[in-house]
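User: I'll paste a sequence; please echo it back and then give the predicted structure.

Assistant: Echoing your sequence first, then the prediction.
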Amino acid sequence: MDIILYLLTIIQYLYQLNCWLLNFICRYIPLKQWAFDDSHSPKYQKYKIDELPLITDFRQDWTYKELIPYFHKRYGKKICPIKRQSECDIPEECSCPRCQAPKPYLYKNNGSKGQLSCKVCDAKFSQQDNRFSAIKLRCPHCGNTLVPKKDRKFFVLHKCVNPKCPYYLHNLKKVEPEHLNEAYGKNKYKLHYIYREFTVDFFRMDLNSLPKNASSLKFSRHNAHVMGLCLTLHVNLGLSLRKTSQALKDLYNIRISHQQVANYARTAALVIKPFVDNYEYKTGTTFIADETYIKVRGIKGYIWFIMDAVSRSILGYQVSDNRGVGPCILAMRMAFRKLKQ
């Protein structure tokens, strides 16, 4: 018994030493692979979402007609048209892009170089300048204006091209020098700040809308029992449309075309779809997503699935003919609307 107690004491002492060594290593010896795990490696930078950009809105709701009486009442300053001593070559249709003041309130600010100034709102502009009628997106890290780089189907990709941006310099330090010396070294990683401006509002689209080829359940020649037989043979047993039509003729003496079987299957799918989409699934806290391609009548398409990690129930899905970001957002909307507030 004394030997067993002695061995147990040694085991406890060794366990304490192991705990102390692990604590010492974690605190004072940083391992290189810890610094570049999946959450910090520059190879996974493309999967991270940047913060929203700074928005500068130059558009104004007021015009010179409201500004002139306001200045006179508030400051006692009366703004009168400009008294010109010589001829002015400013076009008659030219107006201030900020307050819409006409030509009598405009004058040249830098001589013949093309810059004009407004006497009402003190805006400096050129005749080709449209900055007062647009919204500028700026980098949240350096404040530089974002440059539109790519125009996709559903979004415009804006990028910060400032080489001195702190966000760019911080990501550049993460990349190994030998990787930067390779061909297209910097282009392999997401180093600059990137923002996607969506041109389609996916959050206002109706997820429950049915296709245009939806048919009704008003039977003119057959009845609901025949439709049930068609679905049983075609869906449950997996027979083709022509084999389903032949089986109904041989087994039940029911003459029906394969196209009518396809119409019944499509109508049943459209009727069942709202019940499947709006079913109250028990959702957890972890979701998983996947994308794959399918072929329907020889045509290649893409399908997105969002499932619950525990129950494996499909919470959202979307089928599309392209791999754009739009169908993915619609699938996420379908999944997230099942979450309770």
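The chain has four domains: 57-133, 139-199, 224-277, 287-336. Confidence is low (pLDDT under 50) at residues 33-38.
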